[in-house]
Amino acid sequence: MNDESHRSRHSIPGRGRGRTNLPVELTSFVGRRHEVAEAKKMLSGSRLVTLTGIGGVGKTRLALRVATESQRAFTDGVWLIELSELSDPELVTGVVSDVLGLRNQTVEAPLVLLTDYLADKDVLLVLDNCEHLLEAVAALADTVLRTCPGVRILATSREPLRVRGEAVTRVPPMQTPNPDHVSSPRGLPSYESVALFLQRAVAAVPTFELTDENQMAVAQICARLDGLPLPIELAAARLRVMSVQQIHDRLTDRYRLLTGGSRAAPARQKTLRWSIDWSYELCTPQEQRLWARLTVFACSFELDAAEAICGDGDRGGDLLDVVAALVDKSILIREEAGDVVRYRMLDILKEYGQEKLQPMDEYPNLRRRFQDWYQELIMRAATDSISPRQLHWLRRLEREQPNLRAALQFCLSESGGADAALRMTVGLFPFWFSRGYLREGRMWLDRVLAAADDESGADLAKAQYLVSVLAGVQGDVAEGAGLLARADSREDRPGDTSMRALRGFVQGLFALYNGDSVSAVAHFEESIGAAEETEEGAVFFHVGSLLGEGVAYMSLGDASEARARHEEMLALAGTLGDVVYCGRSAMIGAWAWWCDGDPSMARAVIEEGFRLSTRADDSFGIGCSLEVLAWIEADHNPGCAAVLLGAAAAIWRDVGGTMANYLAGLSYHSDCEQQARHGLGSRQFEEKYQHGSAFSVDEAVRYAFDEQPVPAKRSPEADTLSRRERQVAELVAEGLTNRAIAAKLVISQRTAQGHVENILSKLGYTSRTQIATWLVEHTHQQNPDPERRTHHS
């Protein structure tokens, strides 16, 4: 589509997926050398650079090119956060965290967790399309920049963020030729706008070429369109059905109409508008109607959703042809997401379509169809939460999150919509719980419960139980207990075994987190018994209770019962096609075999756990397997155990939550650490542990499978610091404050503070303790222990 659009938006971010999620460019990048160089220069001098300009001018594409060319400068990665599909300011921080792989399950404020994670990172965040969330994005950027010295931000917006220290550069249109002074086709492609037109023209019609006959028309098209990439690409797409001269003639007519015969060039905003007007007029009535209807989607969509929501019912089979026509006209962008195709529309074309939809008087009906269809999608996904289609539905719901949020907002904004919202949030629980979206799930459940009335029946009680679970898993035990008590006080429907299964699961988790494993076992048994009596709707809680009971038996030291629960899990969930929870259960089975003196069998179980959790992209399950494998390895390989403990700790920092704390708090964890520390010595243990904590999730899994070493980050060299900074570092290592350092060196306190900040920046550290540790390491390298030197001689 336009200069901002031809890119794949489906690379999976996070710790497990390398150091960037920047999309692959699907069309060549044209021109903009000066703008790229200028933006990179600004980024080197300012920690916040905002690219501004009207829609369709190419801000996103320019930002992506700058980010791609800057990757080597950021050791912890370059990450794209796309905000155009987000409408809720409360979710901005969560979306940034999700992209970075931080699905932290604690009750801590999201911004605190994010800044803690970024505090020692050398990262570039690309915040794309900020204009509709300016206040929330500005607050986030300001806090991150103040607390995370290694973070830089590149933003795109139609207006500045207005944050202190922000450097703003306006993205201009592309260079255009003077159509009155065109002498030959050879020089025209040196103009960026012409080069763009030619490249997109060849994409539309492979035989197209610039000739003496069409050069004037091409030059005039680019000039009349003011060098704006979006209109130029729209014009080039018309070559499939028109000649260059026909496009030029139509544009000339519209230009005269717009300017009323005046020689004054039209405002670029008007140029953009009438270019889109013309694209709309060139569409058939069917295409115009579908263009408008498709704007009901909050993000990209798949064909089944478009057919159900925007089709004409009896003529639904024609919709694919109309979609294909809109793709041909560059109104829709076709993207591949794994093994499916999705379609999306640029924001500016979407805004235009929404304007056209209003007079059609179709919006209320479309909105109802939209929320009904997504409610049905959620119900189907919930039914298949433990099934061979589990991963299909988890990935589908992941892709549909902006649309799901829009459907929930629709329900809550209309009278009588609370019941539908209740059903949707209850249905989304398995997705939120499996994927670690506990904070967002709790937010929506809280909103829905606030809107519901006491007549909402069983769904209200289920929602209260489920939000209590999310609160408990986040560590907000007191609030969770209150919600649990309120849910318990509601009168059950007679014979509702699915509600008993849910209640037992929730009560079991609360007992487990409160350290009462015996009561947890009893509650989980109650849930399992009720689930076995239920024909449908309780499998998820049956599986969850088996997993919870296995963990309870681990804490009680009962290997036989723990292994029995693991085997029941495989017999039930594994047979049904589950991947996520069988992967998590591997820690229970492996621990049981290890306790029974069979480490080989334990490793085999853990390897299967890694395989399943990796297939499900489940960092939590991988963390569980790393944790237990460390316990197993400590007996004979303390170095490996230390690395594995570090790798697991890194995942727990990202994921958090009560269960992570629970596993790390078991005696097996402390025994493993003590055994590894004793076998290695404290210094070597810390080196191995830090080595593991620097792993990505994928690197940790590779290490666990074959113990192939991954190069650790090198410590900064001693000559990184100036003589004065080295003096200051030595005083920091002695524990002196900035005031004491200033007195010692006879300098001002502000100067001392400046030296300390420079040292932290040069070494890539965030604390004075890290400076002290670094200094000890380099002193040791320069003056090794005499006894050790004698020993090795």
TrEMBL record:
Segments of this protein annotated with the region Disordered: 1-20
Domain HTH luxR-type: 714-779
A GO biological process held by the record: regulation of DNA-templated transcription
Entry-linked InterPro entries: P-loop_NTPase, Sig_transdc_resp-reg_C-effctor, TPR-like_helical_dom_sf, Tscrpt_reg_LuxR_C, WH-like_DNA-bd_sf
SMART domains: HTH_LUXR
Gene Ontology MF terms in the entry: ADP binding; DNA binding
Origin: domain of life: Bacteria
Matching Pfam families: GerE (PF00196)
Ranges of Basic residues composition bias in the record: 7-18
Name of the protein described by the UniProt record: Putative LuxR family transcriptional regulator
Organism: Rhodococcus wratislaviensis NBRC 100605
